[in-house]
Amino acid sequence: MISLLIDTSNRPLSVALNKNCICLAEINTTVKKTHSATVMVYINQLFKMTGYNKKNIDRIIVARGPGSYTGVRIGVTVAKTLAYALRVPLYSVSSLAVIASSSNRTGILVPMFDGRRGNVYSAAYQVDQSEMSIRVTEGYRSLDALSEKLEEYPKQQSLLDGDEKFSEKIESYLHTVPRISTIERYVTMIREEDVHSMVPEYLKLSEAEKNWMERTQK
After folding, report:
1. How many CA atoms lie within 13 A of 144 on its CB side?
2. Which of 16, 85, 102, 189 is the right S-S partner for 97, CB 3.0 to 4.6 Å?
3. Is 98-175 a CATH 3.30.420.200 domain?
4. How many CB atoms are located within 10 Å of the residue 205 CB?
């Protein structure tokens, strides 16, 4: 099985081609470039590197969020368009689970990234070499609220991009950026989607949505 995997949910970008869950080629970047201008360029480079083409793809896996509103939309839109055009199944995975799988660590792993206004997107997973399960649900919360939820896991490991501004507030962490090629071994984290009805999973309302709700509820 050939899988095309896409994650544009935050500043890092990760795309990969896997064969039977083993990475054939991947491109991972953390440079500040517009994902809409680069994601298809990088996907085409994967095909050139491997000798495969779009017709060889058996399924597509995309990070559904949370993350940057624009970033998540770009990845989901590209994945849905390709899945529809190629008539292949579409699957999704949490962007936080991708970070957890990318660390190559086991135990209680706590991926997080900046949600602004003093909050983070975060979760906690129990991870071993082939299984991952949720211990703290994926959510948008303050660091204090996250700390309270992690009190029963004293040996947890925080995973985040060391370039994030809020990293200064984390006493100890492992610098981790997403490599979506690593997620296929955790089959319970991957869910099948309907190509027509799938929507990004932001975990919080945008400012525009908040303003609209405030106006309509008056």
Report:
1. 1
2. 189
3. yes
4. 12
What is the full DSSP assignment across 25-81?
EEEEE-S---HHHHHHHHHHHHHHHHS--GGG--EEEEE--SS-HHHHHHHHHHHHH
Structural domain spans, the chain: 2-95+179-211, 98-175
Nearest to 25 by CA among 10, 44, 12: 44
Radius of gyration (Cα) for the chain, nearest Å? 17
Task: Inform me whether the pLDDT recorded for 170 exceeds 70.
Answer: yes
52 contacts 21 by C-beta, under 8 angstroms: no
pLDDT-derived band at 108 (thresholds 50, 70, 90) equals: very high
Cβ neighbors of 118 (< 8 A, separation 6 or more) are 142, 143
The pair of three-digit structure tokens given for residue 199, joined into one six-digit string: 């929507």
Kindly state the tokens that stand for 34: 């517009």
What is the per-residue burial (b if ≥16 Cβ within 10 Å, else e) of 32-70? eeebeebbeebbeebbeeeebeeeebebbbbbbbbbbbe
